[in-house]
Amino acid sequence: MTTNSTVLANVALPQFDVPFTTVTDIPAAERDALRDEIKQLLRAQDAVLVAHYYTEPALQALADETGGHVSDSLDMARFGHEHQASTLVVAGVRFMGETAKILNPEKRVLMPDLHAECSLDLGCPIDRFAAFCDEHANRTVVVYANTSAAVKARADWMVTSGSAEAVIMHLSDRGEKILWAPDRYLGEYIQQKTGADMLLWPGSCVVHEEFKARELHELVQAHPGAEILAHPESPPSVLELADYIGSTTGIIQAARRSKARELIVATDRGLFHKIREVVPDKILLEAPTAGHGATCSSCAHCPWMAMNDLRKLAATLRAGNNEITVAPAIATRAVVPIKRLLDFSKQHQTRIYGANDA
Fold it and tell me: Quick check: pTM over 0.90?
């Protein structure tokens, strides 16, 4: 295939503070009491809990136990749309709550902490992004799910890491040039796979960007036979070493298929909870995020995801606060690219949920 070159946009990204957060170690007795209280509150408020793969294991387990759902951001919103509950409680980051609200405008959507953000979302503010789109009006605007409702409202398509290759190939086959945002590494990976003409917004995930290829190579040498499973938000030097590249769901499925005894996983370590459920006999190793001389070998956990915990979840349900709202004018436009992806997914399931991803 003859490939077009990927062009990285010359855009000055805004500065933002990354919070320093740690997972709170809640005493066992309090944890059990909180779990019982949350279960009662969910039933009393006709609510269902949906949690992202990157949240702490206690929240994921609680979602499963109460008839909720643990998945990626789009599937969380889709589950909420199909569920009869009148209230959705989203354990994740703000754009996930917004997506759930956009797809479920009639439902109340709550989150444990409204300050739980995403570096990709924060690094793509609507004012700068809209101006950038206006400068390249001849391009089809495709945005990753990790964006605000306002950015989605400016887009033609929304994609996930699992659907991006199929959607971009579809658009490229129609002769369309792509304006892609916000993750540059995922964009570069998709461009290499499809050969599409893509202009990339220069954003990145603060977790995946920190994976180190040199140290990853050394880890593989120390664990011969281990397979590397990587998320495409990781830098190209890391992806070059990977045995499998795919979405969160895809990584879980790849772990199930793998014959290796040891798996090195290059994504947020929150995913380990679900991987261990699928392959409890395998040894999971975190891909390194720190170079030589650093005080930790891996810090692969989103600080905003870490803001979600049992205490905050219980407090939100007690008070009924931390409700997500999306302006109707924005929601009306933002739902278009989201539903476009959902419709495309139904029509092209083989391409999206094939052997290489999910």
Answer: yes
